[in-house]
Amino acid sequence: MIAERLNSLRALMQRKGVGAYYVPTADFHLSEYVNPYFKSRQYLTGFTGSAGTLIVTMTEAALWVDGRYFIQAEEQIKGTPVKLMKMGEEGVPTTMEYLASLPEGTVIGMDGRTVSAATAMRMEKTLAAKNMTIEEDMDLVGEIWKDRPALPSAPVYVLGLDSVGVSAADKLADIRRVLAEKDADAHVLSTLDDIAWLFNLRGGDVECNPVFLSYAVIERDAAYIFADETKFHYCVKEYLRQLNVTLLPYNEIYSFAARYDEGDAILLSSAAVNYALYEKFSEKAIIVDEVNPEQLKKAIKNPVEIENMRKAHIKDGLAVTRFMRWVKDTIGKEKMTELSAAEKINSLRFATPGNLGLSFGTISAYGEHAALPHYAPNKESDLTVEPHGFLLVDSGGQYYEGTTDITRTIAVGPLTEDEKKHFALVLRSMLRLANAKFLYGCRGLNLDILARGPLWDEGLDYKHGTGHGVGYLLNVHEGPNGFRWKVVPERVDSCVYEEGMITSDEPGIYIEGSHGIRTENLIVCRKGEKNEYGQFMYFETLTCAPIDLDAIDPDLLNADEKHMLNEYHRFVYDTLSPLMDAEEREWLAKYTRAI
Question: pTM (2 decimals)?
Fold first, then answer.
C-alpha cells in the first residue's frame, strides 16, 4: 500500500516537473498535533508519530524522526520503501543537507500552507547556490488521497472569567500596547492555541487539543478572526461583536493579507506563519518578525488559572490513583492488556465531573514496549500485561479547570535488579528537579542537569527533553518554557523561568528490548525569598498521585531523596484521602506510607 502511494505521488511529481517533494507533519497552522485531514506524512509512510519529515524523490523516500521515535518508526516502516533518517545521529544529514545534495536545478515541491515561512525562506537561500527552486502551491498528496477525511467542524465556545481570570478585551488591549511599542499596524496570528488563548475561545478541531482552525489579525482599533462561520453559535458571534471582532471566512486570510502595502508594518513570527500566507504580503510592507507576544503571556498562568489547575490535578489524581489500585487488584487475576489498561484509565477520566476528554492519546506500554517513549497500543501490537515487570502509562485529561499530563510506571509483579535500579534513578532525577531552588534568570538549560545528573553518573541518558510547558485548557505541549540540556532550534523552550509557568518534569530510562521507565509530574514556578543575592525561585508540584512504592528499593535512595518522596506522598494523602471512601483511603495510606 505504501509503495503504491509513493508510486502515485512520483507519477504526479513527474507530470508536474518536480524532482523532490517535501512533506512535514503539520496543518496550515504548523500545529504539533493535527486533524486527520492533515496527516499526509502518515498517509505516505505508515508512521503514526506526532513529528517527522518526509522527502520523496524519484528514487528514494526518506523519513526524518527525532530520538523519541527511532524504534517506533523503524517498526512501522519495516517492509516499505521508506528509509529511516535518525535526526541528530552521527552521519545522518539534516533535511536541508539532504536537499542540497540533490542534482543542480532540482525543483522542490511542497504545500506551502504546511511549511513555516522561516523554513521555506531558509531553504530557498540555501538551495539557490545550486539553482534549485521551490514550488509552494502544490498539495500533491491531496490529489492522490481519494478518501481523505473532511475538514473538522466542531463548535466553538467561550470560557468565562472564572476559568481564565483575564478578559479577552484586556488581552487585546495588551497586544495593542505591544503593537504601539513595535510601531506596527497589524499583528497576524496563525497558531491555534495563541488564538484560542487571546479570545478566550475553545473548540474541538484537533483531537485532544481544544482549538479551532482559524487565523486572526489584530489592528490598532479592530480585530478579525478567519474561520468557518458554521462553528460559531449566535451567542459566540455576539460575544465577538461586543469585542469589535469581525468574523470572516477561513480562507479569506490570504486575500486579506494583500491589503497591507507600502509603509504598513506587520508583526508576525515567520516561524509560526505558513509560507503560502507570508508570500501574500506585499514586498513593500514592513515585516516585524518576532516571536508571537501571546506565547510568553500565555505561558505565565495567572492566579485564577493556577488555582483552577490545582483543582484539575486533584480530580485527575483521583482517577489515576483509582487506576493504579485497579492495576494492582487485577493483575494476575484477570486478563489485562495494554489496550484494556488504556481503556480503563480513559474511562475513569471520562467519568470525572468537568472532564472534556484526553489531553493526548494514552500511552500504555508493557515490558519492551515501554522502551518506546511515545508508543501507542493498537490491536496489532497489544501485549498482555504479565504479572512481572513494569506497565508504563503516560496520560492526561482536559478539564474545565485545566490540562493534566502524568506518567506512572507501575510494578505489576517481581522486578529484576536492573529494573529496581533504573526506577530509583528516574525517581531521584524527577525529585531533584522538582525540589530545585534557583535564582531568577535561570532557564531550563541551567536546570536540566538536576534531572540528568543521576543518570549521567551511570552513563545513561534519554533522548527527549526533561520537560515541556503545558497549556491551560489548551495544548499539552506549549512553549517557551521547558527543560533541555542543549538548545534545539526548532523547539522554542529555553526562556527564563517566570512565576506561573507550568512545566512537566519527566526523566526516563529506556532499555531497548527490555523495559522503559518514566515518572512525570507537572510543576509550577513560584517566587521564593528575595535577599541580597536576588530573587530565588522554586517549584510547586501540581500532580497528585502516588509513585509506586512496590517498585522502590529504599536502599537506593539517600536520606534527602527519601524525605522528598515522603513529603510528596504526605501531600498526596492529605489532598486525596478526604475525597475517598474507607477502602480507598486504606489503599492510599499503604501506597503513600513513609519509607
Answer: 0.93
